Amino acid sequence: MPENTTYRRLDQPLLGRARFEVDPEWFARFSERIARFLGTGRFLAIQTVIVIVWIALNLTAWFGSWDPYPFILLNLAFSTQAAYAAPLILLAQNRQDDRDRVSLEEDRARAERTKADTEYLARELAALRIAVGEVATRDYLRGELDKLCERLGAEPDPATERARARLSRRGDG
């Protein structure tokens, strides 16, 4: 057996050689376009015109009618069309199901993220409410200072009294 003297790797394709590449989705996209066309009024109108012309030509031709009255050839054409249309429509439906499945998964993931974000914000809001509940307000501090002043026997600060009067007029006091 002769020895391989080219020393090329057999697990890698040759470079520079023209390869025939086919887009695997090409036929699926093409069948989807056909299925969309088969479901239109335009297709039904064209098909109706073709059938009427077919029948009229075969009924009025005195000689040379290629498909006499039972219209077997027309029936064969319809059968062939149905044989190809059904799988194309099913292929288009399968592609639509795949798109719907992907969309549903994305919606589900988005809903889970939204739920997690909402739960996080609810926890943060609860923590803020608890923290605000523990914060000393101005009124609390003023009251405590007034109590302390009374205990010490000192008079309250006039600036504090003016601020309290101003707040009570505004309705904040």
From TrEMBL:
<dbReference type="Pfam" id="PF06210">
    <property type="entry name" value="DUF1003"/>
</dbReference>
<keyword id="KW-1133">Transmembrane helix</keyword>
<keyword id="KW-0812">Transmembrane</keyword>
<keyword id="KW-0472">Membrane</keyword>
<protein>
    <submittedName>
        <fullName>Putative membrane protein</fullName>
    </submittedName>
</protein>
<dbReference type="InterPro" id="IPR010406">
    <property type="entry name" value="DUF1003"/>
</dbReference>
<feature type="transmembrane region" description="Helical">
    <location>
        <begin position="43"/>
        <end position="63"/>
    </location>
</feature>
<feature type="transmembrane region" description="Helical">
    <location>
        <begin position="69"/>
        <end position="91"/>
    </location>
</feature>
